[in-house]
Each structure stands twice: as structure tokens, then as C-alpha cells.
Amino acid sequence: MINPNISSAIIPRLVSFLWSNFATHYSAFHKLDLIDELSLLESKQGLTEVEKIRLVALKKQYEEESWDSYESDINLREAKLRSKNEFDRVKFLIDQDDRRGFIWKYKTGTLNSLHTYILDNFLSEETKKVIFNFQSVTDISPVFTRSIINEIIQDCLYPTPHSLRHMWAEAVYRRFDGDAGWMIRSNFKHINPSMWLAYIRDKDNRRRHDSIKRQVISSLLNNYIKKVGIGYAGPLDKLLRRLFNITHVTKPENVASLVEQFALNEIENIKSTDWGFCLLMKRNKANAKCAEQGVPQRHKASPALCLGCHNNLTQNGNIEGILLGISNDLNVLKEPSMPKSFFNESFKTVSNALKHLTKLNADREILVEIQGCLESSSRGS
User: Fold this and answer.
1) Rounded to an integer, what distance in angstroms lies between the CA atom of residue 160 and that of residue 11?
2) C-alpha distances in angstroms, 31 versus 25, 28, 52, 61, 70?
3) Gap between the Cα atoms of 137 and 107, Å rounded
4) Is the pTM of this model over 0.70?
5) How does pLDDT run across 213-240, given as a tens digit for each residue?
6) pLDDT tens figures, 175-212
């Protein structure tokens, strides 16, 4: 029986259960299936009455739930494809009980059909020859078993407790300002001071966070290239667009190397906010909007400072954060007795926000409302 108080035993079990649920029931993957069904029905000739009703229902659902954002997400489509193609192999890895004694069963022809298919297709001929030469089950060592499993799952994405820690650290830099201390205090409120200090002071953890930070930066830039800049806005968007337009690579596989080199040479750090990413460029960082005496003060991040800064990059997921961030500035513009200095700052912030929102194809009604607020306040001033 597994002791629930021993994390090294219980976490792998929980991870394996959650992975299967994610790969087969993730709602975004299901939406892609529905989008594919909709496309098939739209292209089909001579629909039955049932199919016509289904087509109408899917079209309505597409509009109401804004499926266009899912349809255009290249990374989501790739993740769905990989999870489907690799599912049987990953399940083979994480379902330890189901594969007990699998090598000898394969040798003797008594292995179930699914596992036989996996070994037939994902083991080299040399490895299979070694297996069929075994004379006894005692010839199969734990080390050899592990090497077989590693060969089967080679190049697969699969869950481990370590990968969950890695994902958690990525979330810190993608959505929580890189403040690991705040995340620990917020998510683990029962943690005692000594545990918290141990994590923060641990050099290995700091090195891991530095490595993950570089990975997040490279990931953002790779996604930018994949999407050809569509769905991005901000001053840094203009810089990246110019840079990648004049950069030529001889092979597609060289793109990742180019991005990694650019990230390492040109970008010093990353910070995430609700209204976008700050990718602090090494050159000209003294002119960041938050800089004081030439030193960036990124802890003072705000829409007023960030939206017009050359380090800022926003994407579709930041639309709600931008709207929330400028809500008070819109109220300032609507107040006729507001002092001129406050009015001017809010006008500048809302104007910058409108540029971002327009580029990000925010809801037309929202854009009209913000534009109207700027025009009326400008006339009133």
C-alpha cells in the first residue's frame, strides 16, 4: 500500500492519472475536434437533415465561444497532435502495473496486442534481437528494462514530478512577474519560514530559475516566428518584425538556433504582467520608461509606463489585462474637472492602449468606445 504522506510514491501515481485525463479530455483539444467537424460539414455536399441541424449548432457555438482563437493557435494544434500520437507510449511508461514483465512476455509471444505493437514499432532491430536471444526471465536486468523503456519513449513529452516543478517555475515567469517568493507564499500558505527561506536561498533553485527564464524568452520568440507576428502588438513587436524580416536562414532547423542566439545576446530579462511582457533589451535599457537615472525599475510596472515602452510585447491573452489596467484612466478622461497633469497622463496611457488593442483585434465595440472617449475628452480639454 502506498503511504500518502510520502510524496516520492504518491506524486508519480497522481501525475499518471492526470496525464491520461488531460490527453483525452482537455477542453481545448475537444474544441479543435469540433472545429474539424464543422469544417468537414461545411465542405460536404448533400447534407442529411441531421447534419444540417448539426452544422447550424456548430456555427452558432463557434461564434458564441470565439473558436477562432483556438483555430488559429498553431501550438495548441501541435500539442493535441503530439498528445494523440504519443499517448499509447506515454501510457505504457506511466502505467507501471500494466507493463509488469513485458519483456519476457514479448519474447514468449504472450504480451497483449497494444504493447506488442508498441515494441514492434518503437524498438530497433538490434534491441529486439537481444530480447529474443534471452534464455530465461532472470537474464533481464532492471537496467536493461529501463533502457528498453527509454528507447520506447524517446522524443515523447511525458509527465514527471520534475516536469511539474519546471512548469510551475515557467508559470512564475509567464504570469506572476518572476516573483517566486510571492508564488510560494500564495500557493502554499501553510509553509513555514524555514522552508520558504531554504527554497529562496538554494543556489540550485536559482540556477534552475535562470535556465527556465531563458527558455521562456526563447519560447516566446519562437511562437512569435511561428505565428508570423500575428496576434502580437507593442513597440517590441515592431522591432522583432523588422529584425526577422531582414534575417535569412538557409534551413528551417536553423531558426531555433537563431532565436536562442538572439535571446541570449539581446535580451537581459523577462517580466510578465497582465498587460504584456517586458523583454528587457540589453541595448538602450537605460531608456526604458521605468528607468530612473538610467536603471530600469521594473517593480514599478504599470500600463502607463509599459504600454509605450520599447521593451513591451503584448499578445491576445493580454487584452483583458489592458482593459482592466486603463479602466481608471478612462474615468479620469470622463471627469471634466480633472487637473491637466493627470488628464494628460491618462490620455497618453489610453492612446497607447488603443494602439495595442487595435493591433490585437479587440472587440470592435470596445475599440469604438475607447476611441469615442479619447475624442470627446480631447474636445473638452
Assistant:
1) 9
2) 10, 5, 19, 10, 7
3) 9
4) no
5) 777 888 888 888 888 888 899 988 988 8
6) 544 444 444 555 554 455 555 555 545 555 556 666 77
- In Å, how far are 210, 250, 338 from 341, measured between CA atoms? 40, 53, 8
**List of residues 6+ apart from 175 with CB closer than 8 A:** 272
Average confidence (pLDDT) over 131-145: 92
Condensed to tens digits (0 to 9), the pLDDT of residues 320-336 reads: 899 999 999 998 988 87
> Edge-to-edge strand order for the sheet containing 276-281?
232-233, 312-315, 276-281, 267-273
Residue 188 cell numbers, joined: 502554499
How many degrees, rounded to 5, is the angle at CA 312 between CA 308 and CA 315?
110
Sign of the torsion angle spanned by Cα atoms 154, 160, 162, 166: positive
- Using alpha carbons only, give the angle 318, 322, 326 rounded to the nearest 5 degrees: 175
Give the C-alpha distances (Å, rounded to integers) separating 332 from 315, 351, 378. 26, 13, 12
Cell of 227: 505565428
Q: What is the rounded distance in angstroms from the CA atom of residue 353 to the CA atom of residue 319? A: 9
Query: How far is 263 from 137, CA to CA, in rounded Å?
Result: 51
Q: Domain limits of the chain? A: 7-152, 213-325
